[in-house]
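seq:
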Amino acid sequence: MLIESLVFALVGLVAAAIALLGLPAYFRASRLTVAGTALAAALLGGVVAHFCLNGRYPVVAVAFSALAAGVFTSLLARPDLAAGLAPAHRHHPHRAGAHRAPRRHRPA
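struct:
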């Protein structure tokens, strides 16, 4: 189990490196947060898979560890805030006096 845990940790760090190097603009969180999330997800996913499979299929446990790391790391991705990819309407400054007057109901 010790060797598998080291492999799970390595898988988590590789998943974090791929995420941060492949799509750096998508991850606004700190690098430590992304790496920690990938590492924790890989360890947790690998340990759960190891115990569910009774330790019989270590390759499947490592694959599940990689899947868990990828899924949980992708939760931190923010493509809507990536530089140059955000819709233009979100970046217009508010103009003074541009607000609408309150709507009044017509008398019945």
